[in-house]
Amino acid sequence: MLKRPQTTGQVLSSQSVYNGPIFKVLQQTIKTPDGLTVHRDLVEHGEAVVMLAMTADRQQVLVNQEYRVGLNGEAIALPAGLIDPGEDPVTAAKRELAEETGYIASDLRPFTSMMASEGFTNERITAVMATIDPNQRTERHFDQDEFVTTNLVPFTDLVTAVRDGEVTSAQTIAAVSYYLAFIASAQ
């Protein structure tokens, strides 16, 4: 079995060079566990959630039109969002799902956690499973600069879209793959 290393580096200096509404960038000098002194940029980012929210007949809530600056276009992905201060991942998942999609989640369970890209950011994303009833809806509440189009798709169609490269969201690919490998196969 693999063991996760437990050693950490010693931050010798840290200077904020950008502070935005969602993340900030720090330039750091670090003494690594093996004794090297390195200079690194860190994108400090709040924690987030991604939701695998399905109906009883395995229809998955999917965000199929949301502008993403990294693509300069719209993306297909699972619903996701930032965890607000004082929230735990389950509370954030329930809130974000209702805000973005209007669906009311029940039976929420975190099932894995991932780092967005530990080479330059500390963003941790918790994947949460949820059950939804398509007939139970609430009013959606978008952020001021957000517009999201969602729909229900058969989970098998989402798997096909991941396989065929239509879905490029790393957190969506990871959540779907983890679900297939460790949860669905155990049921």
UniProtKB/TrEMBL annotation:
Gene Ontology terms describing biological process: nucleoside phosphate metabolic process; ribose phosphate metabolic process
Cofactor(s) needed for function: Mg(2+)
Keywords in alphabetical order: Hydrolase
InterPro entries noted in UniProt: NUDIX_hydrolase-like_dom_sf (IPR015797), NUDIX_hydrolase_CS (IPR020084), NUDIX_hydrolase_dom (IPR000086)
All residue ranges annotated as the Nudix hydrolase domain in the record: 44-175
GO MF, one annotated term: hydrolase activity
A Pfam family recorded for this sequence: NUDIX
Lineage top rank: taxon: Bacteria
PROSITE patterns the UniProt entry points to: NUDIX (PS51462), NUDIX_BOX (PS00893)
Protein name, as recorded: Adp-ribose pyrophosphatase
